[in-house]
Specification:
Layout lengths: L11 E2 L7 H16 L5 H15 L4 E4 L2 E3 L7 E11 L7 E11 L4 H15 L2 H5 L7 H7 L11 H4 L7 E2 L4 H11 L3 E5 L5 E6 H8 L2 H4 L11 H9 L14 E3 L5 H9 L6 E4 L5 E5 L1 H9 L2
Parallel strand pairs: 1-4, 2-5, 3-5, 6-7, 9-10
Antiparallel strand pairs: 4-5, 7-8, 10-11
Helix pairs in contact: 1-2
Length: 300
């Protein structure tokens, strides 16, 4: 399926004006409802979209992806807004927005919406494609830009994985791994070799277990235990022990084209706390956690 096939020419607006998110989204909705119809007003849709964006608080980086699911909608409507002058829509946005891809989603169209969203994200993640939006003056120009862009038949690991992640090497000190965990707010890190090949993971919970005295692990009631022994030992050793001493070599690995359902079930069954995405040479491409499922699928 071509991405162009789910976009209506009447819903591509190349002259959107406004200085705020409310003005820009409101203008797009007012013009779109002339062609969409239905019982919902532009004010109702705008309020729902803004509420959802505030709840998710996902920063935009040149392309805004406002969306709303509503049972009163009877189809998927993708509304395109081209801004000749980029506008900072939210304080958290990384750069001003040049392109708005707004989606109004019925209860029955979440599947095609998520696939289309992935296609838009892949295509406009390239800075040169986003830059070309400034040259668009008509719906035909926009369709020409997207010519050949396809919607994949299924959502895969490549669409869901986090590409911005931290990793450590086996020769790194344990203290470095814990510092990275603190800075990136995650308790599991991939361990890679000098060629970026995945060799295992380091898990903060498992690290702590290694420092807990065996007699404490065997006790059922720790109510009267107040020893600081394990932490004293940790602070003495974290700067001299290496990651390889704590690395877990068995990890859940998938390829970029692994279907969504497969790694979701693995996470849901708690068979893994993190999925690692690798290429044919076992080089690490990305990571997937339950947070990625929430942000990109359940609340995408």
């Amino acid at each position: 399926m071509r991405l162009n096939s789910i976009i209506s020419e009447e819903l591509v607006f190349c002259d959107i004006q406004g200085n705020t998110r409310e003005e820009i989204y409101g203008s797009m909705l007012q013009r779109a409802l002339v062609h969409i119809g239905g019982s919902l007003t532009a004010e109702q849709l705008l309020a729902g979209i803004i509420e959802r964006e505030e709840a998710l608080n996902i920063p935009y980086e040149g392309m805004a992806l406002p969306h709303l699911r509503n049972p009163q909608l009877n189809d998927l409507f993708v509304i395109i807004g081209i801004l000749k002058r980029p506008v900072q829509l939210k304080e958290s946005d990384l750069v001003p927005t040049r392109l708005v891809v707004m989606s109004l989603i019925s209860n029955e169209t979440s599947d095609i919406y998520l696939k289309a969203l992935a296609a838009f994200s892949r295509f406009f993640s390239r800075a040169d494609n986003l830059r070309r939006c400034s040259e668009i003056n008509s719906p035909d120009d926009f369709f020409s830009l997207l010519e050949g862009v396809k919607v994949k038949e299924q959502i895969t690991a490549d669409d869901v994985m986090c590409r911005d992640f931290s990793a450590v090497k086996m020769e790194d000190y344990l203290s470095k791994a814990l510092d990275i965990m603190q800075n990136c707010s995650q308790s599991v890190l991939p361990v890679i070799d000098t060629e970026n090949r995945l060799v295992g993971k380091v898990d903060a919970t498992e690290v702590l277990k290694r420092f807990i005295p065996e007699y404490l692990m065997m006790m059922d009631n720790l109510k009267f235990v107040s020893s600081f022994e394990m932490f004293d030992k940790f602070f003495k050793e974290e700067g001299v022990r290496l990651v390889k001493d704590f690395m877990i070599p068995q990890v859940a690995v998938v390829g970029r084209e692994t279907p969504l359902i497969q790694f979701t079930v693995t996470l849901a069954k708690r068979e893994a706390d993190m999925i690692f995405v690798v290429d044919a040479e076992k080089k690490l491409q990305g990571v997937i956690s339950i947070d990625d499922i929430i942000h990109k699928i359940l609340r995408g």
